[in-house]
Specification:
two-stranded antiparallel ribbon, 12 helices
């Protein structure tokens, strides 16, 4: 989304073309793992734990690299890769972070429900602050290896969930093992009142604030919008072909390079897969959102 409110496809742009050429050069120089496009997650992790990576991509560095949380928090090991310099230095922020943090589709009550009021009452309890924290991260007091919390008290002596020190365990893997997600709310005002802020989240927040936010130069990113049923179906169907087309071109081109004819073929393929219709639908809802 441009600053003047136009929905665009990056794969049409000269920047995407030049960026893919640059990545191919890295690949040709042996700087990109040749198995990057085919390996399983477990293989990626195993290589990282054995120290084979100089640059890696992950939500949590500790997922991949052999590193302690103490070192990460103290800035003694891995450091964030800043925005790369091209014709401009810019980072496009993630929609959920840049707008409201609101996520639709957390839960729905369907027409098959025999007692929707009862379900709604149960769902309402998911927004209790202590329960929301458990939905988001995990729970406490279970007889297993994965408790992410212990029940503690805040400064007022009231119940508060305290994040436990996980040792060598990856925080995100512990979280995925026992969090239930679903509807929830974690507000800034909850921290140190109902729940502590986890150390692994805090160092990432600091990285975002200090390293990445200064290079977020665009005014907007595409917001969360509600589409009608027909448009939702159309967009979903178009997206499958369009993304496959782009990703196939990208992976092949990074490994093998590409010609101007290959680039022109990508643009023809995107048109054939309905890219313009895809953009028009998104533009319609963006216009309504901005209005």
């Amino acid at each position: 989304m441009t600053d003047d409110g136009k929905v665009v496809c990056v794969a049409n742009s000269e920047g995407f073309k030049k960026g893919t050429e640059w990545l191919h050069n890295l690949y040709a120089e042996g700087l990109i793992d040749p198995e990057a496009f085919t390996q399983e997650w477990s293989t990626y992790v195993a290589k990282g734990k054995s120290g084979r990576y100089g640059v890696l991509f992950s939500w949590d560095v500790a997922n991949i690299a052999q590193v302690t949380m103490d070192d990460l928090i103290a800035g003694k090991s891995w450091v964030p890769l800043p925005a790369l310099k091209a014709d401009m230095v810019n980072i496009t922020p993630q929609t959920g972070s840049f707008t409201s943090g609101f996520q639709r589709g957390r839960c729905v009550i369907t027409a098959a429900a025999k007692n929707p009021a009862l379900i709604a009452t149960w769902l309402d309890k998911m927004y209790d602050p202590i329960q929301s924290a458990q939905n988001n991260w995990g729970t406490y007091g279970e007889d297993d290896d994965f408790d992410i919390f212990e029940m503690s008290t805040n400064a007022q002596g009231e119940p508060m969930l305290k994040h436990k020190w996980l040792g060598d365990a990856s925080p995100v893997e512990v979280r995925e093992a026992e969090s239930v997600n679903g509807p929830l709310a974690i507000l800034d005002s909850y921290y140190d009142v109902y729940v502590t802020c986890p150390d692994d989240a805090q160092y990432r927040l600091n990285w975002i604030k200090d390293v990445y936010t200064p290079d977020m130069n665009f005014k907007y990113c595409y917001p969360n919008v509600f589409m009608n049923t027909d448009d939702t179906t159309t967009v979903s169907n178009l997206m499958a072909d369009i993304m496959k087309c782009i990703n196939t071109f990208k992976s092949n081109s990074i490994m093998n390079g590409f010609t101007d004819a290959d680039w022109d073929q990508l643009q023809s393929d995107l048109d054939a897969y309905g890219l313009q219709q895809f953009l028009e639908i998104h533009q319609k809802y963006l216009d309504a959102y901005l209005a």
